[in-house]
Every structure is written in C-alpha cells, then in structure tokens.
Design goal:
The complex is a heterodimer of chains A (about 525) and B (about 210).
Chain A lengths: L1 H64 L1 H5 L19 H5 L4 E4 L12 E2 L3 E2 L8 E2 L2 E2 L3 E11 L5 E12 L8 H11 L3 E6 L6 E5 L5 E2 L1 H4 L14 E4 L4 E2 L19 H5 L100 E5 L2 E6 L3 E4 L9 E4 L6 E6 L5 E6 L3 E2 L19 E2 L2 E2 L51 E2 L20 E2 L2
Parallel strand pairs in A: 22-23
Antiparallel strand pairs in A: 1-6, 2-3, 4-5, 6-7, 7-11, 7-12, 8-9, 8-11, 9-10, 13-14, 14-15, 15-16, 16-17, 17-18, 18-19, 20-21
Chain B lengths: L1 H17 L6 H30 L5 E2 L2 H8 L10 E7 L15 E9 L14 H11 L5 E6 L4 H6 L9 E5 L5 E3 L2 H6 L17 E8 L1
Antiparallel strand pairs in B: 1-2, 2-3, 3-7, 4-5, 4-7, 5-6
Helix pairs in contact in B: 2-4
The chains are: A alpha+beta (about 525), B alpha+beta (about 210).
Chain lengths: ~525, ~210
C-alpha cells in the first residue's frame, strides 16, 4: 500500500515538473526568438551605418574636390545646379544663400567600388531601396549649405560648405528606436529627421546632440527632398569644407599668410599636374618669375625618374614616350614654341639649338630672327644668313660649302655681289680688290704657295697702284704667256733703280723717259712706237 | 531536477543571444558616441583657430554667434563647451594688448565632461573618451582633461615640456603627456578657479583643448 501511494506521489511530482517546464518554455521561447531576431537586426543596422558613412565620406570628398566650382556657383558641376551660390552683390543672400539639393549620382566617381551598379544605380540593400516612387536613386538626396564671410568689397574671406546626406530607410522595418541606433553608429554626424513639433515642417536632430537643423533651414528645399519622412536618416559633413586652411593643413594656402613661413606652408612635395589625360590642360598665368634649380636626378626621364611612360599622354607625342631632351630643365613639346619678349641669355655660354635625333621627320633646326615669314637673321645647321636669301635683301651669307662651294658671300641691297669666297678663290665681283696691310713689317702677298694670282687668259694688271713702301720690296711674279712681265698703262715713277734686260715705253716720248742711271743694261734701251 | 536543467539551458541561451555577433560592437556603438563628445570639443576649437586667422585679436571669450556664421559646420551645437582667446607674455602671467616678440596667443576650449562619460568613482573621463582623442584625432598636443598639478606631481614636474610649472595643466593625449596651463588663465578664468569652478579639479574635471600660437 505504501509503495502504491509513493508511486502515485512521484507521478504527481513529475507531472508538476513537466507542467512547469512547459510553462517556462512557453514563456521564454518568444524572448529567445526576439533576441535571435535582434541579432540579425543588429547586423543589418551595422551594415546600414557603414553604408551611410561610406556615402558621407564620398560626399565630403566631392565637396572638397569641387569646392571652387561650387562656391562660385558653377551650374555644371557634375550635374548639380549651384547657380544660387553665385555672388550677386546682395550681401544677405550671398552670405547665407539658399541650400542646393543634388542627386546622389554626383558621387558616382567617389563611392566605393560596387556601391553603384554601372555607375548609374545605387545598389539596393536590406534597409535602403534604390527607388522612390519608381524614380531611380531618389531615395537618397544631398543638401549642400554654403556660408560666407565677405569683406568690405563683398569678396569672400572665408567660405564654408556643409553637406547633408538624406537616406530614407524601408519604413516597414525601421522604427524610431532603430533609426536612432543606426544614426548613433554612424557617429557624431549621424542624425534622424522628424516632424517639427512646433509646426508642419521638418527638423533634423544629431543623435549625440552636437548638431541640429531646424525647419526654417530645410523649408526652402523641402520640395527637392520628396522622400523625407520621420526616421529618415541624415548624415552631415564631418567638418565644414572650408576655403582655407586650418581644417585641412595639407592644402596649399591661396593667400599670403602674415607672419607664417610660406615655404613650410606652401611647399609641394609632389609633382604638380595641371590636367589629366582625360581633361583639358590648364595654364599658369601672371607668373612674375620662375626660378628653376634643377636636380638632374629628379627630372622625369633621368636618374631616379627612369619611367618615361608612367604619365603617358602628358607629352602629347604619338607614342607617349618622352624624348631624351626631357632630361633638360625646360621641355616644351607638341609644337608649343616659346616667345620671349626680352633677352634670352645662356649665362654659362652653353646656349644651343638642337634637333632631336629621334625625330627624323622634322625639318632642320634653326635659330631665326624674322618678321612675318622673311628671315633677317638665321643660324642653321650649315649656314649663317643675314638677310633673306630669296629676296634682294640678302646681304651676307656664310654657308658650309658643299656642292655649291659657297663659303662666304656678300651682296649689296641692289642684288650685286661684292664679295665671293669659296674654297678655291677670292673674287671681287665688281673687279675691285683691295688688299691692305697695316704696319710696316712683312710682305703683302697675293697668291698661294708662291703661285701668282692669275686672271683668266690675261696678264695680272694693277691699275693705279703704288707698289713698294720704304725699304719693303714688292715682287710681281711673271705672268706666263705674256710678252711683258709688267705693263704700266699710265705713267710710272721709280724712285730708285730699274734693272732689267728690256725696258719698253709704248708711247715713244723720249722727253718723258728720264733716268738718272741705268745699271746692268745689257739689251740696250728700246723705244717702241 | 529536469526543471533546473531546462531553466539552465534557457538562461544560457538567453545570455548567448543577448550578446552581439560582432565582437567589435563596442567600437561600433559605444566608442562612436564617445567620438561625438570629443568631436564637439575639437570642431569648436578648430573653428576658433580659423576665426583667429581671419579676424582681429580679441581678449576673452569668443562670440559663438560669429563662429556660427561662418566657421562652424552648419547646424553645429557647441553644448557646454566655450572658447577663449588670450595674448600672454612669455611667462604666461600677464595679458598683453598686442602679441609681439616673445608673446604668445592662446586658444583654449573647454567644457564639463558629460556624466555619462565620467568614471563613477573618480569623476575622470572614461577610457572611451581618451581612446577617441588618441585613435580618432591622432595624438593632439594640448587635448585632454584638466587636472591640478598637485594631483599629478610626476607628470607636472618631470615633463620636459612643462615650461610653466603652474598649478594646473592638461593631461594631454598627444606627444606631450602634460601641458601646463598659463597662470593668467588659471587666475582670471573662474572655471579654473578654486571656488568649485567647473574645471577646478578634485572631482570637477573638464575636457580641454589648448593651442599656443606665436
């Protein structure tokens, strides 16, 4: 009996335990389900916050890169219409102009790879759709605010851009608590939009309380953010994108900073490119002076910079290769040329004009002083010209010689050549040649190597010529083939002595033939009539 | 017996599911809230530095409205932080009307540590705040929290950069572990005074960012 009762009691205890267990399971199971679901939600929230941070980072980079164009109101900046930022002289509007709302598409080149599909469509995620009312990418909007401080001339002293990314989550699953948590994980710049409690507009409250924007700030562009709803997530720029400095020490100063070390502030430690392969090149204007102190080992194409093609396209040449001349401090290519209004001087006397030996299809290099197309001075590879050879204005030319044999030519403005020297002869083209020797020593010799100067087919003739000077003897070498070695067409006066086998006078006038003494007369005097 | 086993299983499951799948959830959630606190101080101070660059020198508290017009991010809320500009002589004892030669400008921004970020026992800032200063802003000199030098004798007397040896300083999170506050600021700014000032020490600590500009 006792055993039976004991068994009944044990059975009752088991039943109670079983009922309690079932009750506990039924109570706790929903909690476990909820916790399990929250873990999934948490991962989604983390991903959403990371996604927003990435877009906001791209937004800040976009604003920085396009700062100048945006602040001057360029309406063509990546499709965004910033024309309301243009300075108009209306100071209140200029200092705090109406915000601008642009599409998220402007960030296509700034977003991480994969965030957009084909650079056109934002990728749909668990929490963010890529459409609003079937309009692509309309679920995201970027609001840009500009603030200025103007000087007395209404010129900007400081300009500051702040961007706000609006991203509307799928509201079926994101309530206010969850939106706040996502915004909190974005960081100090995360926020959630809500209805203005004092009106019908919208306010945005930073989750950590360090920033907020009110209804009046959003109202002017509220219509441009159609997807704005309670719990829309908002992310602001981390810091204001400023025109000047202290928020970004790595940007060169655009204005002189008093009492600062300009070299430390404005020194660049990288190459400077004014344009890329895909954009139009730009100019440097109003340069007062360029002082170059080249280091040959740092020049592109030489020393440490041996890769001549890494900036392909920069040279403007067909093969995108730099020539050897790039090893010089100044390299102008693509037919750029250079005009110098003033002096061009080689201070170490190593000035040269050279032709790149690798460019055989280019004409000969030459240095030319010209007016329009007429060269008045030209220094080429094989000739020096003063005056234009194709016109009568050419008056002086020194050439290499070659087939023409011309070495030196002088021509007057009337086209008549006055001097002509080549490798064989010296010719005075108007038949007048003056050989003048200054000083009293040595001889004036006409001829080469003891060979007399010859005139073609005739005797050497000296017209109106005085020969001899003091004790200096003048020798006229025999001109072969002629009867007479010296013929004097006019009168002749010999101050000292005439010696010879035959002395003839063409015009017999004994009265005019006078001599003090005749020495060594062997053939006797002859009067030729 | 079975009941206890089931309870234990459910409690352990509850605990496991209450923890995050992400081991870095602290950095993702808590530390970013701490960053916001530091960012508030940092952004305000940098705005004052920029203001100082483009405007005439003032002596005393910076007009927040002027900062808000141009130099701060749109919508920024400074909370309880304030900024002051000073021009002091070489020793930091006297204010001078115009900084010349060996005089220095000082920009100081400070504010109370939010209760959430205070250590419950000492009142000092929690590790999340200091980590944010170092990890996110990159070891900035003069950025930290204010203390009495008497409470930190080692830092105050042995730091080679401690040029002033004044009564108060900043436990800096930059390359200088301690940054002395000029005596003029301590004597003339009631927040750093002894009379239970906001940054008077002994439980009243402030987040401080001070910059010396010649």
């Amino acid at each position: 009996m006792t055993n039976i009762l004991k068994k009944i009691n044990e059975t009752g205890t088991l039943l109670v335990e079983a009922l309690a267990m079932l009750g506990l399971v039924s109570m706790v199971t929903p909690v476990l389900y909820k916790k399990a679901a929250e873990r999934t939600t948490e991962l989604q929230d983390i991903n959403a916050s990371s996604q927003l941070r990435a877009i906001a980072t791209a937004m800040d980079a976009y604003l920085k890169d396009n700062f100048a164009a945006i602040t001057r109101g360029d309406p063509d900046v990546f499709g965004g219409d910033f024309s309301v930022f243009t300075l108009t002289g209306n100071v209140p509007d200029d200092e705090n102009p109406k915000p601008v709302v642009v599409d998220v598409n402007v960030l296509r080149n700034y977003l991480p790879y994969g965030m957009m599909i084909d650079n056109q469509e934002m990728r749909e995620t668990k929490l963010f759709s890529n459409k609003f009312h079937n309009h692509l990418n309309e679920n995201y909007k970027i609001m840009v605010r500009l603030k200025r401080q103007l000087d007395a001339n209404k010129e900007p002293i400081v300009e500051t851009l702040t961007g706000f990314l609006f991203a509307d989550p799928k509201h079926s699953s994101v309530d206010n608590t969850r939106a706040m948590r996502i915004a909190s994980m974005v960081g100090s710049n995360g926020a959630v939009a809500d209805k203005d409690p004092n009106g019908s507009g919208w306010t945005v409250q930073g989750t950590q309380g360090i920033w907020n924007i009110g209804h009046s700030d959003i109202a002017p562009v509220e219509g441009d953010i159609p997807m704005l709803q309670p719990n829309t997530l908002v992310v602001s720029s981390l810091q204001p994108i400023s025109s000047q400095g202290l928020t970004n020490e790595n940007v060169l100063y655009r204005v002189d900073m008093p009492d600062d070390d300009d070299q430390a502030l404005n020194a660049m430690t990288t190459d400077l490119f004014l344009g890329t392969r895909d954009t139009t090149t730009r100019n440097i204007r109003m340069v007062n002076q360029i002082v170059m102190s080249p280091d040959v080992n740092r020049m592109v194409g030489s020393g440490n910079e041996t890769d001549k093609t890494h900036t392909a396209g920069e040279s403007g040449l067909a093969n995108d290769q730099y020539g050897d001349a790039l090893d010089n401090a100044l390299y102008i290519t693509n037919g750029g040329g250079a005009n110098v209004q003033g002096r061009l001087q080689a201070i170490d006397r190593r000035f040269s004009v050279e032709k790149d030996p690798t460019m055989n299809n280019l004409p000969k290099m030459e240095m030319k002083y010209a007016s329009n197309t007429l060269a008045f001075f030209k220094l080429g590879v094989d000739e020096l010209q003063y005056g234009n050879p194709s016109t009568q204005a050419m008056i002086f030319q020194v050439s290499h010689g070659g087939a023409s044999g011309i070495a030196l030519r002088y021509k007057k403005n009337d086209g008549i050549e006055n001097l002509y020297i080549d490798q064989d002869k010296l010719e005075a083209m108007d038949k007048t040649l003056l050989v003048d020797k200054t000083g009293n020593e040595g001889y004036v010799t006409i001829g080469v190597g003891g060979t007399a100067v010859q005139q073609h087919g005739g005797p050497a003739r000296l017209y109106q010529t005085t020969m001899g000077n003091g004790n200096v003897n003048t020798t006229i070498v025999e001109n072969s083939g002629e009867d007479y070695r010296v013929t004097v067409s006019g009168s002749m006066y010999v101050n000292d002595t005439i010696q010879g086998g035959n002395v003839s006078a063409y015009e017999a006038n004994a009265g005019k033939f006078r001599a003090g003494a005749v020495i060594g007369l062997q053939g006797g005097w002859r009067i030729v009539s | 017996m079975y009941l206890w086993v089931v309870i234990a299983i459910f409690l352990s499951a509850l605990a496991a599911l209450s923890s995050s799948l992400r081991p870095d959830i602290k950095e993702l959630y808590l530390d970013r809230q701490a960053e916001a606190e530091v960012t508030q101080l940092y952004v305000l101070h940098r705005a004052v530095m920029k203001y100082f660059t483009y405007n005439d020198m003032i002596d005393g508290e910076v007009d927040y409205n002027k900062l808000e017009e141009t130099y701060l991010p749109f919508g920024f809320n400074r909370g309880n932080f304030s900024s002051y500009l000073y021009c002091l002589d070489e020793d930091g004892y006297s204010s001078v009307p115009e900084c010349k030669g060996n005089d220095f400008n000082y920009i100081i921004t400070y504010g109370p540590i939010a209760r959430k970020w205070q250590d419950n026992r000492t009142g000092l800032p929690r590790a999340e705040i200091l980590d944010s200063m170092r990890d996110k802003l990159g070891y900035v000199d003069g950025l930290g929290y204010s203390v009495d030098r008497a409470d930190n004798p080692y830092m105050g007397e042995n730091d080679e950069y401690n040029t002033f040896n004044t009564r108060k300083g900043v436990v800096s999170q930059g390359t200088r572990p301690y940054y002395s506050l000029p005596e003029y600021i301590i004597g003339n700014n009631r927040d750093f005074g002894k009379d239970n000032g906001m940054c008077s020490g002994n439980g009243n600590y402030c987040l401080v960012y001070i910059t010396k500009i010649q």
